[in-house]
């Protein structure tokens, strides 16, 4: 993937530059109290982790994190009519953005007014050069910083690298 002129703060980014801001999605789903889950969603036939994240306003990272024990590393075990947790109190980012072709981390930071530190803190799965962000990944773009617990980096990276070929579309 080639590099392109930066659109904002200095951080290396993959070739992505989006012409217009995409609306932020705010979650509007039922609350669920089980296991500290503050909101949940029902899986429908054909859902993927990214589709659920986009539809219900939870970052792809957050969905994987709060369902680490039940969602497989490549997210291929979602069962229709099952319930997934979307967030836990205190670590539930509902201000999200779905990555589009040609987006850069710098562009996202500039459009949503977030610093490098906040983007990487709220999306700790992003590598230092922002080269593992992929089209349709849902990122937390809140200006508030969430303190996520440690996570299974292998699970996220398996999911990310499953979708990375779509970056070149």
UniProtKB/TrEMBL annotation:
Gene3D superfamilies (alphabetical): LysM domain
Which terms does the record give in the GO molecular function aspect? chitin binding
Q: Which species is this record about? A: Dioszegia hungarica
What does UniProt list as this organism's lineage? Eukaryota, Fungi, Dikarya, Basidiomycota, Agaricomycotina
Q: What is this protein called?
A: LysM domain-containing protein
The question of whether Transferase is a record keyword is answered with no
* Keywords from the named record: Chitin-binding, Virulence
What InterPro entries does this protein's entry cite? LysM, LysM1-like, LysM_dom_sf
- Ranges where the LysM domain occurs: 39-86, 95-141
What domain of life does the native source organism fall in? Eukaryota
Pfam families membership: LysM (PF01476)
